[in-house]
Input
Amino acid sequence: MDMKSFALKGNILYSSTPKELVCIPQGYLICEEGKVEGVYEILPERFSTIHCIDYQDSLIIPGLIDLHTHAPQYAIRSLGMDMELLKWLEYNTFPEEAKYSDPEYARKAYSIFAQDMKKSATTRACIFGTIHVEGTGILMDLLEETGLICKVGKVNMNRNCPKVLCEESEQSLKDTKVWLETSRIKYKNIKPIITPRFLPSCTEDLLTELSVICRQEELPVQSHLSENLLEIAFVKELFPSTAGYADAYNEYGLFGGSVPTIMAHCIYLTEDEIELTKKNEVFIAHCPDSNMNLSSGIAPIRKYLNHDLKMGLGSDVAAGDSLSIFKMMVETVKVSKLLWRLQDQSMTPLSIEEAFYLGTKGGGKFFGKVGSFEAGYEFDAIVIDDTSLEHPQPLTLKQRLERVIYLSDDRNLVGKFVAGNRII
Amino acid sequence: MDMKSFALKGNILYSSTPKELVCIPQGYLICEEGKVEGVYEILPERFSTIHCIDYQDSLIIPGLIDLHTHAPQYAIRSLGMDMELLKWLEYNTFPEEAKYSDPEYARKAYSIFAQDMKKSATTRACIFGTIHVEGTGILMDLLEETGLICKVGKVNMNRNCPKVLCEESEQSLKDTKVWLETSRIKYKNIKPIITPRFLPSCTEDLLTELSVICRQEELPVQSHLSENLLEIAFVKELFPSTAGYADAYNEYGLFGGSVPTIMAHCIYLTEDEIELTKKNEVFIAHCPDSNMNLSSGIAPIRKYLNHDLKMGLGSDVAAGDSLSIFKMMVETVKVSKLLWRLQDQSMTPLSIEEAFYLGTKGGGKFFGKVGSFEAGYEFDAIVIDDTSLEHPQPLTLKQRLERVIYLSDDRNLVGKFVAGNRII
Output
């Protein structure tokens, strides 16, 4: 659909704040030049001739945002998850990622990932590739075809990994520059993001040089922070002179400030790290599914919300077993309940409204004005037909959204718009 | 399909013990008179003329067993789950269950439940109805039509509940007898089970009389035990003279021994209660989804396995949000990892094999020889076509089963047999 202006009619729901869900039954959502012009209960006279798609009784909500996932690991999701992070990387992940040196395997595997991403409720994602320039290019090509808007990273890693994935610093930087040269200009919707794997995999000089690239080329960065207790101890060993995990990233210029940054997990942040995360406006990608599967723990999201940290949700495939951000919303609520019950009764469990906010407007902020239907937001919308979720009683719109979050799957997705372009 | 003997061909997988998964690629599973005759790598000569359904590359596994769920709550699954047990019963559950005094509503709601149960991978279930005799009869009628084998209970409760659901003891017993009279003889596959809601809802005299009925009519019993800390405190208040929650059930003759018993949850059992549970051969229905949704906690399943307790899985809709026992297997593993991480590092997380065992052979034992493909077991089998779960690499049968457990849905179920009768 190449129309510049159009309207969607249906039951419109979106977050204005973490606690507030706006519900407009049988409303009109107007798109102008890829942006939300407004939401109306009655179609204003000035739009009387606009092309209007009537989705009848379906729900229209903002596209979901996945702040953290690994495309090459999609092939091993739900397999062999009886290990913690470092062993899991060694035995499952690195052997799989090594396969992406073969462009044929990369194309085969990434095609499945890209198609499943397209069929999901996600409209935007931040995605790790592998170290391989060609393979990562194939991933970006395939994602561009889907119409999704993504930031994709060629991974950098030069220590503590198998030889076949271990880059020399110089080659890593050279490859990164080659990759950036093409990928900065080749795509409309897919943009590069600098991607040092995590501190244990990167030497100080590599981190420093990547930070220079971020600044020179005005690129964002994505990595992992404070996911697992053994990992944190390892970082302390590797970076003895820094105050902690976040401080080390900060010291090498890869922790927010002028470099927009996403850090996945953040389960065990100290009070100082929380302050630094806030000050530098670093985004936390909360990945509850992954954090259960790898026995990592539960991130104290209530505390982070109280500190008003920037935050969204991540599927973190393949430590997470699903691409569904709806599922991540459900698990955000569930693990927050267990944290309250098992560890700290000051941490009130999250509500479903708060989880919905995190998976839409919370994560969307990393992409600018994304994840809501307020005027001026980019027009990312999905349409859910929930009639297959039968029920015997009348339901409010909020209740229907709750059921969609818990119970829907790709069969219920009947429309998907990214920055005003219809892709389903 | 009314054949008394037939064979299924495909990739056959089943549990022999909690740790051992038997995998037979392209094997033959023989049914004779509703029971498993055997599993063979090559079809024995004596079966050369048997009718054989060739499921090609699909997986054939035992039907899943749901030891605990509430049919009337299916309508409110995934709604309003921001409360703990006692409040949730008061605000969500009791108002919904009250609606089942209306046979028309009961038929409408239970039809949805029965159809979704039929489409699921579950072949047998133990199910709570409501207090209503007519409504519970409608549920049993509808379940009988599905071909599933179920034990269904008219609920008994005579205190601490809204007036409209609160029975007089005498009427409760009279209604139970009326209900039993019909339901004991009316059905082929659906059998009654005595169902005192839980201790807070039942007076001592009602419990005692129900125990008499169990013994006179040789009926099993299902209820709840040790789900929530406030509930446990309430039970202590209500039954001050007994040593604890399990002891109270035991005192009133409703805790195993000659009365086959399922107790849902069992999160906070004391060492004495564990011993009693073992001695009396009480089945535990582990309900991890419910225990997260209602912030109840995490049952120490590793400890119970070490004690060799009888145990299976329960969906516990609507505190659980899904009927899928595959999902309960996944969550069994996930919450066991969080218990290990957050509370007790002696509790090794469960493996997927152990969770699969609990959802098949573990729970199946409550129904007799059910939940495995060893010779003499009842012929409950499901067939899963996993081709839609695309992957770029070769996978072993065990890996394919892992993926099915984590990723499949009703679309992947292409065959379902209950005691030798094909229902899908």
In short: Residues 64-367 of chain B form a domain with the TIM Barrel fold (CATH 3.20.20.140). Chain B has a mean pLDDT of 97. The longest strand of chain B covers residues 21-32.
